[in-house]
TrEMBL record:
Lineage of producing organism: Eukaryota, Metazoa, Chordata, Craniata, Vertebrata
GO biological process: exocytosis; Golgi to plasma membrane transport
Protein name: Exocyst complex component 5
Keywords associated with the record: Coiled coil, Exocytosis, Transport
GO cellular component: a single term: exocyst
Taxonomy, superkingdom: Eukaryota
Matches recorded under InterPro entries: Sec10-like, Sec10_HB, Sec10_N
Pfam families attached to this UniProt entry: Sec10_HB (PF07393), Sec10_N (PF20667)
Domain Exocyst complex component Sec10 N-terminal: 29-137
Family: Belongs to the SEC10 family.
Domain Exocyst complex component Sec10-like alpha-helical bundle, first and last residues per copy: 148-697
Organism in which the protein naturally occurs: Podiceps cristatus (Great crested grebe)
Coiled coil spans: 40-78
Amino acid sequence: EPFVADEYIERLAWRTPGGGSRGGEAFDPKRLLEEFVNHIQELQVMDERIQRKVEKLEQQCQKEAKEFAKKVQELQKSNQVAFQHFQELDEHISYVATKVCHLGDQLEGVNTPRQRAVEAQKLMKYFNEFLDGELKSDVFTNSEKIKEAADIIQKLHLIAQELPFDRFSEVKSKIASKYHDLECQLIQEFTSAQRRGEISRMREVAAVLLHFKGYSHCVDVYIKQCQEGAFLRNDVFEDAAILCQRVNKQVGEVFSNPETVLAKLIQNIFEVKLQSYVRDQLEEHRKSDAEQYLKNLYDLYTRTTNLSSKLMEFNLGTDKQTFLSKLIKSIFISYLENYIEVEIGYLKSRSAMILQRYYDSKNHQKRSIGTGGIQDLKERIRQRTNLPLGPSIDTHGETFLSQEVVVNLLQETKQAFERCHRLSDPSDLPKNAFRIFSMLVEFLCTEHIDYALETGLAGIPSSDSKNANLYFLDVVHQANTIFHLFDKQFNDHLMPLISSSPKLSECLQKKKDIIEQMEVKLDMGIDRTLNCMIGQMKHILAAEQKKTDFKPEDENNVLIQYTNACVKVCGYVRKQVEKIRNSMDGKNVDTVLMELGVRFHRLIYEHLQQYSYSCMGGMLAICDVAEYRKCAKDFKIALVLQLFDTLHALCNLLVVAPDNLKQVCSGEQLANLDKNILHSFVQLRVDYRSARLARHFS
C-alpha cells in the first residue's frame, strides 16, 4: 500500500499510552512527545542502515556490469574469427563445386556419344533381324515387352524413311508391317484397358502411342467408347453435359494433351449427335407447321447455347468461345439464314387468322376501308369539317375491339421478339425487330384498332337523330386500354433490342405517327358524339318544353318546382357525364367534360331565349337553371360551373322589379357582360313593352 504520513502518525499515537482517548485514559502530551522522539531516532538509525546497504549493492552492480561488458567484447572477437573461417570454407566449397561440374560435363560429353553408339548398335542389331527376315530378339517375341518393342520399331520406322527404296524396299515393308501391327496391338490394348476402367494402363499405352501415327485413332477410339451408353435418355443435351463432365475428370489422367482430346469429343458430339437430333426435330415441321418449327428452333438453339455455356467451364484451349460458337453455327446456319422470313410469314398468317376468327365469331364481314385519291379526299374533308361522309352504319352496340384478340396478338409478337433476340445475328437484330414491330402495327393498330375506329365513326348517327345509341365512347375506352398494352410491349420487349441502333428513331417515329393518326380519329369521333348528345338534348327540350311552362295561364296556381324538360335533360346529362368518366382517364376526362359543359350551356342559353316569361314563369326558369347548375357541378369543371352561375344571374333579370334592374345589372356576376346580352334577357319579360320597364332599363 502507498505510504501516508498522516495515517502513520495517527497509528503511532493510538498505540502510545496517553496518546489518545482510548479506554478513558487521560491525554499525556509528554509521553506522546517522548514516544515521537524515540521513534524518530529509530527511523534515523534504520535510514542509515538502509543507505549503507544501498551503497553496497550499487558498488556490486557496477562491478558486475564491467565484467559483463568485458565478456561481451571477448564473444564479439570470437564471432569475427568464426565468420572469417566460414567465408574461407564457403570459397573452398565453391571452388570444389566448380571442379565437380566441369568434371561432370566432361563425363557427360564422353558418355552421351557412348550411349548413342550403344543405342545405334542395338538398332543395327534389330535392323539386321529385319534384314535377315527372322525376328529372334525377346523384345519382339515377348508380348509383355510391347512397350520396348514399340519404342524400337518407332525409331526403326524413322530410319527406314531415309533409306533408298530400290535397295531396301523389302526391309522397309517389313518394318512398316511390324509398325502397323504394334500400333494395332497398342490400340487394342488401350481399348481393353478402357473397358476395364484401368486408368494407369490407358495412360501408359497412350504415352507410347503419342509418337505413332495412329495416336489420333487412339483418341477416336476413346471418344467413341466414352459415348457408348451415354445417350439413353430423351434429353440429349443433359446427357452431353453429364458425359463431358465425366470425361473432363478422366481425360487429364490418361492423355498428355487433355484439352485437345476433350475439344475433339465435344466437336464429335456437336457434329454427330446434336446435329442429327436438331435435323430430325426441325425437318419434320419445316414445311408443314411453321409455329412448331419456330418453337422447336428457339428451344433447340437455346438448349444448345446453354450447353455451350456449361462447356465453357472446361479447358478447351486458348479460344474456347470461338470454338464453341463455330460448332453452334455449323449446326444451325442453314436454319438461321432464313429465320426472319419464316418468322414474318408465320406472324402474318397467325395474326390474320386471329383477327378473322374474331370477326367470324361476330358474324361480321369486314368492310374494306378504301385507300387512294377519293378516300384521302374524304378523309381530309372529314378532318376539316367533321361531317359524316357516307351512310351511317348500325353497329348494334358492337365496338369491334377485343381485349382477347389484342392479348393474343401481343403474345404472338412477344414470342417473336424473344425468338428474334435469340436467333438473329447481332448485326441483323435491330432490323429484324423492326420488321416484327411493323407486323404488330399492321395487324393490331391498322387492321384492328383503326378498323374499329373507322367503323365506330361510321356508326355515329347524325346530330339530329332521335333516340340515338352512342357507342363510340365504348370504342374510346377499349382503344385507350389497348394503347396502354401496346405501349407496354413497345417499352418492355422492343426497346431492349433496338435501344443502341439507328432503328430506335425509326420505331419511335412509326409509333408516334400511328398514335397521332388514331388520336385524330378519336378526337373526331368524340366531337361528333358530343354533337349527338347535344342533339338528343335538343329533341328532349323540343318535345317536353311547352310555351305555357314559362307563361302559365294561372299565375297563382303553379305547383311544380321545375319543368319536366329540365328533369329529363338533367337525367340524360348525368348519364353521359358518368359514361365519359368511365371511358377515359387523366386529363382527357376534364377536356371532354369541359367541351360538353360549354355546349350544354350554349344549348340551354339559346333554348331559354326562345320563350317569353311572366313573373311566375321567370321564377320557374330560375328553378330550371338552378337544377341545370346543380347538374353542372357533376362535371367538376370550374369554367362550366361559372357559366351556369352567370346564366342563373341572367335569369334573375326575368323576375326582378323594374326599379331594381340597374342595380342587378351592375352586380358582381353581370357587371362584365355585354349590355346587349343583358338587354336580350330583359326583352324576354312579358312586361317589357310597358313604358315603365323600358324607361328603367334604357
